[in-house]
Specification:
The chain has helices at 2-15, 18-25, 45-67, 126-137, 156-170, 181-187, 193-200, 221-228, 240-254, 260-269, 274-291, 297-313, 316-327, 331-334, 341-357, 362-368, 373-389, 391-408; strands at 29-32, 37-42, 73-78, 81-82, 85-86, 145-149, 205-209, 231-234. By secondary structure, it is mainly alpha-helical. It folds into 4 domains: 2-86, DnaA, N-terminal domain (GMP Synthetase, Chain A, domain 3, 2-Layer Sandwich); 126-234, P-loop containing nucleotide triphosphate hydrolases (Rossmann fold), CATH 3.40.50; 240-313, Helicase, Ruva Protein, domain 3, CATH 1.10.8; 316-408, Chromosomal Replication Initiator Protein Dnaa, Chain: A. The chain is globular.
Length: 409
């Protein structure tokens, strides 16, 4: 039986997308293969429904092929249940989450340093922190979902993963699954009932996004409603004092001592988000170690200069001017709602160049051009396809590259 199931899994792996195989097929187990057919156990009821609907015929065909029995049928059961009843206490009720070498309790998808202990709380994020900790501690049983929204690099991922660490550290028997938007779109976006099922069964869910549910374009109404029913908390950019405290915490994690003057300088110059702060500090520490130089104000200035020089020289406004001049359009036309082809291509090119040559988040770029995040992403994809397929687009991109590289130097 084990050999047949291993061979069946190997065959299914070749015929099913990797992410789908890991999520839906890998957790399954072949529990029996009597004369009447085969019995497969699934982690939960939703998994059973999903597997039956989308992969059932394929699984059955492989088992018949490998066993040589053409009449057998496959039945699916939830692990730990028999004839619709829960198993006795102590019996396993859920299989391990799918993964390459997944262990059920280890939180392998979570960053080690993304914990509550390493999250610096300030006036910009105190409510988001409290709401996340409350959810992790189950202090508020009435709140089943939390929706964190902020710009890039302000702590959404940190808080989300901190909840997972908190749960696993205090209740190792619990299951935590941290998934990306890409995974969600691949497997779950059509299964709107999943979120309701999870909430109704007492599960806790955290969503994070760079914008409010009402501002997400082309989002299904059921998903928008589910997101909007969550406790919604914004995370604002940190103020100066909070930035200093973040740098102190990062310094401690790096195992190095940095003078207050240097920390203050970095905090005053690197103001956009936490990732920029971390980049500046890690650059100072690395340069000090490699060159044998003391960590002082002069060293910090040299690192900061490298980080912000490109940002100061190449801006979205500069890109707009360059694109408008090349295509002979006005800046007003570039950001207008017009869909004339004579304006669509310049607009797409400007958005593409803004993404490539500035560190502005995609949402910010979209707003600058009076477009949604999704539209900005589509514009970038159009130019990327054009680079591969259209010699004229390649020439235009090369022209702008040379111009912008000259500005940078």
């Amino acid at each position: 039986m084990d050999t047949i199931w291993k061979d069946a899994q190997a065959a299914l792996r070749k015929r099913i997308a990797a992410h789908s195989y890991r999520m839906w097929i890998e957790p399954l187990q072949l529990a029996g293969n009597g004369e009447g057919g085969w019995t497969i156990t699934c982690p939960n009821a939703f998994s059973r429904k999903r597997v039956q609907e989308h992969f059932g015929p394929l699984i059955e065909a492989e088992l018949k092929r490998l066993s040589g029995h053409s009449q057998g049928q496959v039945s699916y059961h939830v692990a730990g249940r028999s004839n619709g009843r829960k198993a006795d206490a102590g019996a396993p009720v859920q299989l391990a989450l799918p993964g390459e070498s997944a262990r059920p309790h280890n939180g392998r998808l979570l960053r080690r340093d993304f914990t509550f202990e390493h999250f610096v709380v300030g006036g910009n994020n105190d409510f988001a922190y409290s709401a996340s900790l409350s959810l992790a501690s189950r202090a508020d049983s009435s709140q089943a979902a939390l929706y964190l929204f902020s710009g890039t690099g302000l702590g959404k991922s940190h808080l989300s993963q901190a909840v997972g660490h908190h749960i696993l550290a205090r209740r190792p028997q619990e299951r935590v699954y941290y998934m990306s938007a890409e995974d969600f779109s691949h497997e779950m976006v059509q299964a709107y009932a999943t979120l309701d099922t999870l909430c109704e069964s007492g599960k806790r869910i955290i969503f994070s996004s760079s914008c409010l549910p009402s501002d997400i374009p082309k989002l299904h109404d059921k998903l928008r409603s589910r997101f909007a029913s969550s406790l919604i908390s914004a995370i604002d950019p940190p103020d100066f004092r909070t930035r200093v405290r973040i740098l102190k915490e990062k310094s401690r994690l790096f195992g190095c001592s940095v003078a207050e003057e240097v920390l203050g300088y970095l905090a005053s110059e690197l103001t956009e988000d936490v990732r920029m702060l971390e980049s500046g500090l890690s650059g100072v520490v690395a340069k000090s170690s490699l060159l044998g130089m003391p960590i002082d104000r002069m060293l910090a200035e040299s690192v900061v200069k490298q980080i912000v020089s490109q940002r100061k020289k190449i801006t979205i406004d500069l890109i707009k001017q360059l694109v408008c001049k090349y295509y002979h359009v006005s800046s007003e036309e570039l950001i207008s709602r017009s869909r004339k082809q004579t304006l669509v291509r310049p607009r797409q090119m400007a958005i593409f160049l803004s993404r490539r040559y500035t560190d502005s988040p995609l949402q910010t770029i979209g707003k600058t051009f009076n477009r949604y995040h999704a539209t900005a992403l589509y514009s970038i994809q159009c130019i990327e396809r054009g680079i591969k397929q259209d010699a004229a687009v390649r020439q235009q991109v090369e022209f702008f590259r040379q111009k912008l590289e000259t500005v940078r130097d």
